[in-house]
Every structure is written in structure tokens, then in C-alpha cells.
Amino acid sequence: MTTIDRAPTGAGELTARRKQLSLLILCGAVFLDALDISLLGVSLPSIKTGLGLSDGSLQWLVSGYTVGYGGFLLLGGRVADVWGRRRTFIAATVLFIAASLLGGVLTDGGLLVATRVLKGIAAGFTAPAAMSLITTTFREGAERNRALGVFAMTGAGGYSFGLVLSGVLTEIDWRLVFFAPGVIAIAVLAASPLIKADAPRVAGPRQSFDFAGALTVTLGVMALVYGLVQGPAWGWGSPGTIAVLAGAVVLLAAFVAVESRHRSPLVPLSIFHSRSLSSANLISVVWAGSTIGWQFVATLYLQEALHWGALKTAFAFLPLGVVIVAVAKFAAGPLVGRWGVRAVVTVGMLIQAVGVLLYLGVGANSSYAAVMLPGIILHGIGNGLVYPTVNIAGVSGVADERQGVAAGLITASYQVGAGVGVAVLAAVLTATGGSGEGVSGYRWAFLVAGLMSLTGLLIGFQGLRQPKGAAAASPAAPAVPAADPVAARQ
């Protein structure tokens, strides 16, 4: 595993209690980001009726958040590194609150979509800032692995809780799904002064900001996500889809060219010299494509083939979140410390693939307990192992001053993967019979999702291998000084 400009973390300056308080607050941010992705799910029909929105506008209440989130992650990570992580986190949380409360009172569909884009942009700054604050607060190794496991567990819990909360709030008033995240974010903002302060800026010449890199990568990723979101509606061979995706390729190629020449690049290309980091980002793409794509198809199957209601469907996925939370909290960190990231990712992707492929047996009258629940539980175990472990691999060996960039990269990979997965499986579903009463199209889509998981297994097995003689220096399981009060309890 290549070590990239390793720098001391200085995490020992904080007490164990202060570290845990910081972790709790930062996990509140990822909880919000995940919650806001799933919270609109059940409420969309009520919002459509209440505001008289078209299907296109309704789709963009979800897609607008994704485009803003995915498009600004790399910029958010770099801003956090340069401007200050806690400062970036606080400013973005304020924007998130304002957009949430404004969205709850608006009656115009276009303006409501705009608030969703703003919330996505805010999340694009809070997510890498929060993750890099964690990686610079907790010492690399068992201590950081456990913290990232809690971070991942909170994200999974937020997504699952959002599905259920969406149904409950919609029963009262659909506007509450916009207000609720803002209220929680106010509590996070009030507690933010307790987060670890940014380290003093190192004396020396002030680095120039890479505006060209920021512009090309932000527009490039936004174009990519936008093209993937719109592809199924426009048609993959339509001029609009081709133009947007081609534009994304051109912008991202320009970004690479800019980064190779800039003195202070937004994303130093040397960061990809780490095979662990590069492999972790590739795994993130296929993992997110498989898991989010599978959930998208499974939701359609339950509602359109089995005719389940939205709230019943939401509760059907509740065991997924419970299992992910339990595995991420109690199993992932210790297993990484004992067996390393390669073994945990490989086994996790295999378990996830089996869980997805069990859905090849679904039919028009399948039993939830006998057919679907076993797949959900296996899927949750795989998720709980892979998600925190890939986060660990994606930031290991990266210097403190680049942790924001590394966090932005890994989170952007998830977002791009989710867009790819939903787009690909939607296309497969359409091409093989579509959704509705028949189940053939669903089975083909589940097969493709399972193959994505197996692809992640192969990437992890090959890419996360440690060079000979590197085992002792692996950041996954270093010796932890007993003087640290948190590490002493390992």
C-alpha cells in the first residue's frame, strides 16, 4: 500500500471525551445527508397532488439533490482542506438549514426543486468536511477504523430511518419532510463549536486556488450525473443524452489536463499512486451501483408487481438498515483490524452478491419472509462490511492536508455509482419487459446488480493486495499506543 505524503495527525491533543463528542456531531451531518436522500420517497405522490407538479418536476425533487451533491463533492473536499474543515462544515450546515426551511413553505415547483439543489450542494461540502474531520481527529489504525465504522453506520441508519419517517410524516403533512431535516440540522449547528478546531495554518507562501480545476470537475461531474439521471427519460441514444455525456467526458478530460499542470491542484493526481485509494474508489462505484440500483428495482417490484403500499414497502426495507448498522458498528472495524481491508471487502462483496442474486427467485406472489427477507439480511451484512471498510481504504495513508480531497473522492464515487446503477438497471428493466405485473424484467435487473457486486469483489481482491513486506506497516492494523484512553480499550 502506498503512503501518500504521510503527516502527523496531532489527534493525541484531544481528550477521548472530546473526540467522541466530535464524532457524535459529525455523524449527525452524515445522518442528515442520508436521511434527505430517502425522506422524499413515500411523500412524492402527496407532493405531486398538493402542488400540481408534473412527473418531470417530481423526479427533479430527488435528482436535483443528487446532481448538487455529486457535483460539488470534490470542490467541497478541497475547500475544506484550504479554508478550514470546521469552518466549511458550519457554513454548509447554515445553507442546508436555510434551504430546508425555505422548501417547507414554497408552493412553486421550480423554486422547490432549486432548494433541493441547494441542499445537495450544501451536502457536497458537509460530507467531505465531516469525514476529513473524523480522519484527522482519530489516529490512523484501529481507532480511526472504529470511528469510520460508526460514521458509516450512521449513514445507513439515516437512509433506512428516512424511508420509514417519510411515511409517518406524510400521514400528518407532506411539508414536514422538508422541515424535519432543517430542525435536526439546527441542533447539529448549535453543537458544532464542540468539534475539533482546525489546525493552525503552516507558515509559508499562500497557495493559489485552482479555479480552472474546480470549474471543470464540478461541471463535469454534474453533467455526468445529470446525463445518467436523464438518460432513461430521454433515451440513451438521443442527441440530448449523447451531448450531455460527451460534454461530461470533455470537461473531465480538461480537468485532468489542468491538474497535471497546476502548482496547487484541486485534486493532486499523485494521490492516485496509491493502489488502495484508487481501488477503493472503483469499488465504491460498483458497490453503490449494485446496492442503490437493487433497492430501486426492489421497490418497483414490491409496489408494482406485488401491489404493496408505500409505507408497507418502507417497512420491508427496515431490516436492511438494522443489519447494516449492527454489522458496521460491531463487526467491520474489528474484522479489518484482524484480517485487513482486502479480506473484509472481498467477503462483504460476496455476501452482498449472494443476497442480490437470491432475488432471481422472485415471482408474482413471492413470500416476503421466505424469499425476500433472506436476501435483504445478506445484503445488509455485505453493506455493513463493505461501506466502512472502503472508507478506511480510501483515506488510509493520506496526509492530513489532503484528507478533504480523499473524502470528497470516495463520496463522489458513491454518488456516481448510485447514478450509474439506477440508470443501468432502469434501462435493463425497460429492455427486458419493463416493470408491472410480469417479473422477467425484474429478474434480469437483479442479475445485473449481482454481477456488479461480483465485479467489486474482483477489484477488491486484486487492487487491495498489500505489497510483500508491507503487512507490518498496514494502516488497517497498526500498533496502537496504550497511552491513548480510547485505544487502550481496544
Keywords:
490 residues; mainly alpha; Growth Hormone, Chain: A; 3 domains; 16 helices; 73% helix; globular; disordered N terminus
What is the CATH class designation of the largest domain? Mainly Alpha
User: How much helix is in the residues?
Assistant: over 70%
Q: Unreliable stretches, pLDDT < 50, 5 or more residues?
A: 1-12, 467-490
- Number of E strands: 0
Query: What value does the average pLDDT take?
Result: 81
Give the SSE layout.
Elements: H1 16-38, H2 44-51, H3 55-83, H4 85-103, H5 109-137, H6 142-172, H7 176-191, H8 211-234, H9 239-261, H10 275-305, H11 310-316, H12 318-339, H13 341-357, H14 368-395, H15 403-431, H16 440-463
Helix pairs in contact: 1-5, 1-6, 1-7, 3-4, 3-5, 3-8, 3-15, 4-5, 4-7, 5-6, 5-15, 6-11, 6-12, 6-14, 8-9, 8-15, 10-14, 10-15, 10-16, 12-13, 12-14, 13-14, 13-16, 14-15, 15-16
Notes on the structure:
The chain is mainly alpha-helical and 490 residues long. It folds into 3 domains: 14-197, MFS general substrate transporter like domains (Growth Hormone, Chain: A), CATH 1.20.1250; 214-265; 272-466, Up-down Bundle (Growth Hormone, Chain: A), CATH 1.20.1250.20. It contains 16 helices and no strands. It has helices at 16-38, 44-51, 55-83, 85-103, 109-137, 142-172, 176-191, 211-234, 239-261, 275-305, 310-316, 318-339, 341-357, 368-395, 403-431, 440-463. Helix 4 packs antiparallel against helix 7 (176-191) and helix 15 runs antiparallel to helix 16. The chain is globular, with a radius of gyration of 21 Å. Mean pLDDT is 81; it is low at 1-12 and 467-490.
